[in-house]
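Here is one chain, start to finish.
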Amino acid sequence: MIHFWLRLPGFHDVNSLENRDPRVIQRWAEIAQPILWRWFRPEVRGLERIPEGSALYVSNHSGGFMTPDTWIFTITLLRERGVEAIPYALAHQAVIEAPGTNQILTSWGTLAASPENAHRVFAAGFKVLVYPGGDLDAFRPSRDRNRVIFGPRRGYVRLALREAVPIIPVVSAGGHSGWWVLSDGRWLSRLLHTHRLLRTDVLPITLSLPWGLTVGAPPYLPVPTRVLLEVLEPIYFEGSGPEAADDEEYVEACHDRVLATMQSALYRLARERRARRRERLRGWIAETLYRGSE
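Its structure:
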């Protein structure tokens, strides 16, 4: 059966909604869930807040290319609500066209990021998942692990306004603690012109297992850490349609609202993670002292 799970068929059309394969999704989930749940001890909350029909999931992005938050969220939706509940994710063209990742990601329903692809998903009554921060967020320095970094990108707001769909914020804490990002390397990216060559604005300097100190972000073994993920209340905007999407001031106001909502939730989840760590540490110390006094 392993050969079926890991089978990589021919190149898939990155703009097709027909690539999603429920059998492949189920089998990948059977492999990944026990590993992810043991390694990250995730808690996913707020699924009851998800409305029916078309909507745009907007999430922060952590862990570089490993993205544990993505897999935890989609597998949870699969287990709780079925394959139809998994959103069609929009991915960077270079990532989704790479050999191997093309076949794997498209089998889950990932599409090349474009307004046209998102429109077709919404028209079919499904949901779309985007990470507006992209590489800026996924490779942010570890000192900013509890910050949502979207940079100058506002396309996600324009998309929601133009399509008249609500934004559902999804906030994850902990996924960026599995490695150490010393610098996102924006200065190095500019020096080496990686945007032109690799279509990325960062070239991170990282410390991870088993590679140690590296320039770039190869796949790595995350340090075990707890991931808390929460689906927040949908955000509905008063204005919508092409006119609203073309209003730069209104778009910025909508972005500020989304960002503030997500940042507040991330701070809250980060505080909860710290409190739990302190509680576990106190428990360990008390147990150690008790055993030492026996």
